[in-house]
Amino acid sequence: MTTIRLTAAQAMMRWLSVQMTPEGERFIEGVWAIFGHGNVAGIGEALHAHRDVLPTWRGHNEQTMAHTAIAYAKTHKRRRAMAVTTSIGPGALNLVTAAALAHVNRLPVLFIPGDVFTSRAPDPVLQQIEDFDDGTVSANDCFRPVVRYFDRITRPEHLLSALPRAFRVMHDPANCGPVCLAFCQDTQAMAWDYPVEFFEPTVWHIRRPEPDRRELEAAVAAIRAAKKPLIVTGGGVIYSGAEATLRDFAVKHNIPMVETQSGKGAVDWEEQLHFGSPGVTGTGCGNKLAAEADLVIGVGTRFQDFTTGSWTVFSAPNRKLLSINIHGYDAAKRGAQSLVGDAKICLEKIAAALGTHRFADPDFAARKDWFRTTDALLAAPTANTLPTDAQVIGAVQRNTGKQSVVMCAAGTMPGALHVLWRAAQGGYHMEYGFSCMGYEVAGALGIKMAAPEKDVVCMVGDGSYMMANSELATAVMMGVPFTVVLTDNRGYGCIGRLQTSTGSAPFNNLLDDSYHVNPANIDFAAHAGSMGANVVKVGSIADLEAEMQKAKSATIPTVIVIDTDPIPGTGAGGTWWDVAVPEVSDRPQVNAARENYEQNTARQWLGN
Fold this sequence. Notes:
Layout: E1 3-7, H1 8-16, E2 19-20, E3 28-33, H2 43-49, E4 56-58, H3 62-75, E5 81-86, H4 90-93, H5 96-105, E6 110-115, E7 149-153, H6 159-170, E8 179-184, H7 185-189, E9 191-195, E10 202-203, H8 213-225, E11 229-233, H9 235-240, H10 243-253, E12 257-259, H11 284-292, E13 295-299, H12 305-308, E14 320-325, H13 328-331, E15 337-340, H14 343-354, H15 364-378, H16 389-398, E16 404-408, H17 412-420, E17 428-430, H18 439-450, E18 455-461, H19 462-467, H20 471-478, E19 483-488, H21 493-501, H22 524-530, E20 534-538, H23 541-551, E21 558-563, H24 588-601
């Protein structure tokens, strides 16, 4: 056996550089790194040596580096990914939130945090967590519940098994998610004689599991027996590459569709069988169909509470649930009739079995009425008032096209975009599985790196921008252009509205309702400009539209700041959401909200 002597860190980077997609590209496109004493000498030296075959990028925050990597993987439909390395201690723990985000969204990312000395000779080292009852614990054990695979590299030869295991998880269509290879810092520097064949290029494929014959026959029978079926499109459709298959299936059998946040953009909004979204952020026409459907066909969806209106929106008597999902865990939720398998293959097989079976036309008039209603909400204001979020969305919509991607993550904008944005196929990117504030700017960078031909527009509120914005400086440094539309409503407007809707007094959400000695006066334009971005603060919707056009030719990020009204919601669509209201309060508004809450919880379908 021919061997080559390498340090463990050198071996890892050499191996990563030759793991390929079927299209001949690296699966791990590159490594985001912030160095510290736990990874600079071992991993840092190895990355430098492999910089021509495995790029290294420097970020400004460990969590947002990971957000960039996650957005990159999501844009590539899980077929490519990035790695992130940090030192041990706070650097590693800054990744945990992002790991949970990737876990919830079923997205691949490779975390390589430094770890303690296996020798324990210098213990306790700087930043080391000491467990008084367990000598094997380190800070990286925090990753265990939020990754799909965890391993600690304490010997150089561990890489021979740990790396392939990690990649199998990231390529598993059902169990796909983040992995953590905690890399002990002395192990990184240890040398070992690795087999040369370990570094031969490997092509990784994603399986397409076929459904069980009995489950398939039962699913076909359930659809044939339905009178008013409704398809709920989830993110699994996109990850399966089943967008065209789903559209053809719906058209062939005349079945209307609604879409989750993760599934939005699988089918172009102009398709007449596309009725928008269901649930809490649902369209009027979509929720009408949801209330009437006798068979709800979920395709690649987890049936999250926003989709289901906390299980009140699919309310027809005796309605049934059919869940087509790659994972049995998701397919069996709420007692659904399960069809476990790849979305594309399942739809193709159901279509073949149904033959020419077609259903009666859905309410196309309601769909037309919805778009007429929302046209007015999206129009520019006629009075000299602060614009609403809907009016800002309308301005952005009028200045984007089929090659645009609008993205967001948390606050007011996700709900408003879900119900109002008219997404072209592939034109929508929302992190709403974890709804992590601070994902937006870093996520926009990841999307643009994955799809440089796209016009990427990041919609972010002032609250989320304040959470994490430092990768704006990274994007400037790297010359990666995208447009940030920063809506300033002076605080957490979304939660402020939720607070008052549950009867509570305005408190601690908007800046003016929070404890302060000096009123907040944050100059977002100056802040973004200090990081080198193109910046402008606009005073009207018309000015916003003009600056959107200018930003398209920029070679670095452009930030457009606009003040907005924090009070109005979208003004259309939606349904109830289960947010518990206190049973006892001195406030009559809370007591009235509690009464309404109890009426709505009585409508919930608990299932199993």
